[in-house]
From TrEMBL, chain A:
This is DNA replication complex GINS protein PSF1. It comes from Oreochromis aureus (Israeli tilapia). Residues 53-128 form the GINS subunit domain. GO terms for biological process: DNA strand elongation involved in mitotic DNA replication. Component of the GINS complex. The keyword Nucleus applies. GO terms for cellular component: GINS complex. It is found in: Chromosome; Nucleus. Its main location: nucleus. Keywords: Chromosome, DNA replication, Nucleus. Required for correct functioning of the GINS complex, a complex that plays an essential role in the initiation of DNA replication, and progression of DNA replication forks. GINS complex is a core component of CDC45-MCM-GINS (CMG) helicase, the molecular machine that unwinds template DNA during replication, and around which the replisome is built. Required for correct functioning of the GINS complex, a complex that plays an essential role in the initiation of DNA replication, and progression of DNA replication forks. GINS complex seems to bind preferentially to single-stranded DNA. Belongs to the GINS1/PSF1 family. The gene is GINS1.
TrEMBL record, chain B:
PANTHER family: CDC45-RELATED PROTEIN, CELL DIVISION CONTROL PROTEIN 45 HOMOLOG. GO terms for cellular component: DNA replication preinitiation complex. The lineage of its organism: Eukaryota, Metazoa, Chordata, Craniata, Vertebrata. Belongs to the CDC45 family. The gene is CDC45. This is CDC45 cell division cycle 45 homolog (S. cerevisiae). Signal peptide: none annotated. Residues 136-152 have a biased composition (Acidic residues). It comes from Oreochromis aureus (Israeli tilapia). GO terms for biological process: DNA replication initiation; double-strand break repair via break-induced replication; mitotic DNA replication preinitiation complex assembly. It is found in: Nucleus. Residues 136-164 are annotated as: Disordered.
């Protein structure tokens, strides 16, 4: 049946609805494009035939193929666009350096798009707040306090904070540290925010 | 040295610094730690919290952090040894010690620069005066100087001078020997008994009060710390009652609001109230029957390990008019009519059965519709969590779980702690019953002795110090009531349980003899050290309580060598 491959692509993204980025399905995309090409060729030949020989009974099949082409196009653009939205969200979640396993799932064009997005976000942030710029990717929720209490979930070794002191992060030790230093480690799962 | 003004000499010193908190594994220390953490959060003092389970842990934690931190706060550890000698710190490390272990080591008391004791100076200490223990070195220098001067005099006079000098030297040496003998005696007297002082949680609550940053949560934690000392039999009854009165003043200060129909507090707010409540452990979270069977006081008074005792219990319940069906179901589901006057009814009946102290002064907390807890409930729940014998949990894991259970937002954890506590109490009761019935307690001359074999059910629970100590006290009480031998009633009890089967180590605990007016002073610290020397078996005096000890199996063979210091006092 036509358009099934395209629906496969959409389903693949739909399965991972929590914002994860699955690997770029180059095969699937190629198959869809091939199908589109085949449909288009058939349509071209049918149109020529209908025009030249006046066979009006070919028109419904031409219309059908045209609808399939439009459908495929819509599915493919939806697939690509949704992936771009997910990649954009990754910048806000992980920071400007993506972990290797995520980068592996992106194709070359998506990587290029990502670096362009990074650049424009960075220049926007620099333009805010006077000379220094403002990092708007920090503090996504309004912070309740300057310092938070964190608990160490695994041995992480030494960790340096802004004024130079080094804290030893040993399993099950608790620390009271500035919020902005801890956010990255909390996202990585080394520290856990303790709400008392 | 003792700190005079806790706000100026401690809090303001650490106010802009980073601090390391080294916390011992007992409930009082956990409560003190929570209070201090809350204060530090208020003032944004950065800190690092490291749980330490013994002297080795303390040493390791100190070595790891000494490069980066200058200020160390030790909670319930470190006062009873010479800390500077043990840790060998640099000159700029400062230690603030808030410890209930007494006697405080004399070096810690008289060191002016590095050790600051967050202990009240009059807290039942009896520290020997400085001159009795420390002698100036200058006097000796003068002696030798004089001698050399005198030696250079002309020979005729020298002989007379020599005689005078020799006499003076002999005199000085004799005085010195006398002084040293007296010093040894004073130190021996001072250090032979181990006991406990005011709760660390109460000390920190007082700090919070002085800073006017005290909250109901901190007050509740201070109450739990105090109750922990009473539940684990660390302080005398008199001291407990005095401290309760202090806490009562704070409680009434915090709940003085006039609550009437219009201005009533929301049901979710925390309310602490003074309760003159029953001494039945966990009875509000259990059934009344189970609680009576598994509480030390009632079980020993009725002698529930005997058939006679069971009959007496049934009579007791019948006397109060409580139907068995009601008494065996969960307390919350008992009929309201029975629950209303329960305390008075039980008190009246207990008086007839010889239990004069069935009620005890304590505090309860109430927040939300479902959550009511007595202070002793919290202590048992947290202690069960702290010493839970799960395979995957290391000691720091259980420390963190127990610390979490003290927050009001972790009620689930507290409930799981209560379930563990119930299992622990049932295990203790069964072990006591079996030990008494099978006569596992042997009299070894100056003390009683009991060894839990490896196959005993629940023996893993008793490889932890607090649980073993609780079992030990319970067993001694039960034994004293069930034996007919008058001499045995005055003996102390030593108990051993396997700690680590693979390594062949045991944990040994000693408690003083059972008496009505005991001052809770424990002499086993010294006794264990001497026994270890004489059997040359490896013992690890790792616990902060000197009366608990880890040893090889061989140590138990040397139990005959346990001789007590001659001047033991059995009051």
């Amino acid at each position: 049946m036509f358009c099934e491959k395209a629906i496969e692509l959409i389903r693949e993204l739909h399965r991972m609805s929590d914002g994860q980025l699955p690997a770029f399905n180059e095969d699937g995309l190629r198959q869809v494009l091939q199908e589109m090409e085949a449909l288009y060729e058939q349509n071209q030949s049918d149109v020529n035939e209908a025009k030249s020989e006046g066979r009006a009974e070919l028109i419904p099949s031409i219309k059908l193929r045209h609808c399939c082409l439009l459908r495929n196009q819509r599915c493919v653009t939806a697939y690509l666009y949704d992936r771009l939205l997910r990649i954009r969200a990754l910048r806000w979640e992980y920071g400007s350096v993506l972990p290797a396993n995520v980068r592996f799932h992106m194709c070359a064009e998506e990587l290029q798009w990502f670096s362009q997005y990074k650049k424009s976000l960075a220049s926007f942030m620099r333009s805010l707040g006077g000379d220094e710029g403002l990092d708007i990717t920090q503090d996504m929720k309004p912070p309740k306090s300057l310092y938070i209490e964190v608990r160490c979930l695994k041995d992480h070794g030494e960790f340096e904070i802004d004024d130079g002191t080094v804290i030893l992060l040993k399993k099950n030790s608790q620390h009271f540290l500035p919020r902005w230093k801890c956010e990255l480690l909390i996202r990585q799962g080394v520290l856990e925010h303790v709400v008392s | 040295m003792f700190i005079a003004d806790i706000r100026k000499d401690f809090y303001e010193v650490v106010a802009n610094q980073r601090v390391v908190l080294l916390v011992a594994p007992d409930i009082d220390a956990l409560c003190a730690c929570k209070i201090l953490q809350a204060l530090f959060h208020c003032d944004q003092i950065q800190y690092t919290l490291v749980p330490v389970t013994g002297w080795q842990d303390l040493g390791t934690a100190f070595l790891e952090h000494k490069e980066q931190f200058r200020y160390f706060v030790l909670i319930n550890c470190g006062a009873n040894v010479d800390l500077l000698e043990m840790l060998q710190p640099d000159d700029d490390s400062i230690f603030f010690i808030c410890d209930t272990h007494r006697p405080v080591d004399v070096v810690n008391v008289y060191n002016d620069t590095q050790i600051k004791l967050l202990i009240k100076q009059d807290d039942d200490l009896g520290v020997p005066s400085y001159d009795d223990i420390f002698r100036d070195e200058d006097e000796e220098g003068e002696d030798s100087g004089n001698e050399s001067d005198e030696g250079s005099e002309p020979s005729g006079k020298r002989r007379r001078f020599d005689e005078g000098a020799v006499e003076r030297r002999i005199e000085r040496q004799r005085a010195k020997r006398e002084w040293e003998a007296r010093r040894r005696e004073i130190l021996f007297d001072y250090e032979q008994y181990e006991y406990h002082g005011t709760s660390a949680a109460m000390m920190f609550f007082e700090l919070a009060w002085v800073l006017t940053k005290d909250t109901k949560d901190m007050l509740w934690w201070a109450i739990i710390g105090l109750t922990d000392q009473w539940v684990h039999d660390k302080i005398t009854n008199m001291k407990y009652v005095t401290d309760i009165a202090t806490m009562q003043r704070h409680v009434s200060r915090h709940s003085h609001r006039n609550e009437d129909e219009e201005n009533s507090l929301s049901i979710d707010c925390m309310r602490i109230s003074f309760e003159y409540d029953l001494r039945l452990t966990l009875y509000q979270h259990w059934s009344l029957y189970e609680s009576i069977c598994n509480s030390c006081y009632t079980s020993c008074s009725f002698k529930l390990w005997t058939l006679n005792g069971q009959k007496k219990l049934q009579e007791f319940l019948a006397d109060m008019g409580l139907p068995l069906k009601q008494v065996r179901q969960k307390f919350n589901s008992m009929d309201m009519s029975i629950k209303e006057n329960l305390r008075d009814v039980i008190e009246e009946s207990s008086n007839k059965y010889g239990m004069k102290d069935i009620r005890i002064q304590t505090f309860g907390v109430h927040f939300g519709f479902k959550n009511r807890f007595l202070a002793s409930d919290m202590v048992h729940a947290t202690a069960a969590l702290l010493e839970s014998a799960e395979k995957d949990d290391s000691e720091t894991d259980t420390f963190i779980k127990a610390l979490d259970a003290l927050s009001r937002s972790n009620i689930d954890r507290l409930h799981s702690g209560i379930e563990l506590a119930k299992k622990k109490l049932i295990a203790i009761q069964q072990t006591v019953a079996s030990c008494i019935c099978t006569n596992l307690i042997l009299s070894q001359g100056p003390f009683l002795y009991c060894y839990l074999m490896e196959g005993t059910p629940d023996v893993k629970l008793f490889s932890k110090p607090m649980a073993l100590t609780l079992l030990c006290k319970y067993l001694l009480k039960a034994f004293v009531l069930s034996t007919r031998n008058k001499r045995c009633k005055l003996l102390p009890l030593v108990m051993a349980a396997p700690k680590d089967v693979e390594k062949g180590t045991v944990i040994v605990v000693g408690i003083p003899p059972e008496s009505e007016t005991s001052d809770k002073k424990n002499f086993f610290g010294r006794a264990f050290e001497k026994a270890a020397e004489s059997t040359s078996s490896r013992t690890l005096h790792d616990h902060f309580d000197t009366s608990t000890n880890n040893a090889e199996n061989r140590f138990l063979d040397g139990k005959l060598f346990l001789k007590f210091p001659e001047r033991e006092r059995c009051e």
